[in-house]
Amino acid sequence: MPRLGAHVSTAGGVSLALERAGRIHLQSVQIFAKNNKCWIEKPIDPDEVRRFRALAAAFDRRDMVSHAGYLINLAASDEDIYKRSTASLRDELARADSLGLAWVVLHPGSHGGRGEEWGLDRVVAALRRVLHETRGMRVGILVETTAGQGNSLGWKFEHLKRILAGLKYSRRVGVCVDTCHIFAAGYDIRTREGYESTMTALHRLVGLPTIRAFHLNDSVKGLGSRVDRHEHIGKGQIGLSAFRFLMNDPRFSDLPMILETPKGPDMKEDIINLNQLRKLIHRKSPGRHGRLTPV
């Protein structure tokens, strides 16, 4: 069964995110381990770390991730921003490791007009340095697929292959696939044929075992728009069929699948989206031929 979850607010303290997750019975959780619009913050209070870890006992470690801040750009041509970005990523990893999280999800960055090859070399060099400097930590990095807005990297599966190969397929580096992002990047997952073609390309270029998490988002904008605008499940341009294929794909049945759809403070939108996804999950009927029937 997919391990369904959501990005959860840490307002009031990181441990409160797990309390909120427990209230709506999430199986996987994503948080910001610091303000997502600053470079570095003071360390998390030790008492708060202890409270978080106590609550985290209810979750499998592999199902808990943080998302790196939005200022980080490992392809930046500006040396000051590049240095700040690598330092900020080290801080993100340290914070996630202190909390016992499995992964930090990362947008690879923007080449700023210098070209994809130049930008990818820049990303690989930064990640290689950060991985070396944090080699004693258990936490790893998930490079996220992007929609390809502007000069962003990561919207082609070939970009991911280049990054993973440049890091010699480190066990501390994997991939997070965002459904809105790959659709906006031009991968049509709305039909069975398109879905299988996309997954075949993923396997050929990066290998399905490198995929360690999914972000589940419908898309406001159309196929190939290269615009990153998340929508509620089944309410956007992707529609329900793609999510039905994913929910019942045995290749990803034990991975965290995390909502990043719009929401209010009471998380009622998450509940609605999670219920929608659960309705798409099929199970084997005890009848003849193991026919699949809706739960």
How would the blueprint of this fold be written?
Blueprint lengths: L2 E5 L6 H10 L4 E4 L14 H11 L7 E4 L11 H21 L3 E4 L9 H18 L6 E5 L12 H10 L6 E6 H7 L6 H14 L5 E6 L1 E2 L10 E2 L8 H8 L8 E4 L8 H13 L1 E3 L7 E3 L1
Descriptive report:
By secondary structure, this protein is an alpha/beta fold. The protein has a single domain (3-294), classed as TIM Barrel, CATH 3.20.20.150. Helix content is 38%, strand content 16%. The protein contains 9 helices and 12 strands. It has helices spanning 14-23, 46-56, 79-99, 116-133, 157-166, 179-185, 192-205, 240-247, 268-280; strands at 3-7, 28-31, 64-67, 103-106, 140-144, 173-178, 211-216, 218-219, 230-231, 256-259, 282-284, 292-294. The strands form 3 sheets. An 8-stranded parallel beta barrel has the order 1-2-3-4-5-6-7-10, surrounded by 4 helices. Strands 8-9 form a two-stranded antiparallel ribbon. The chain is globular. Residues 285-295 have low confidence and may be disordered.
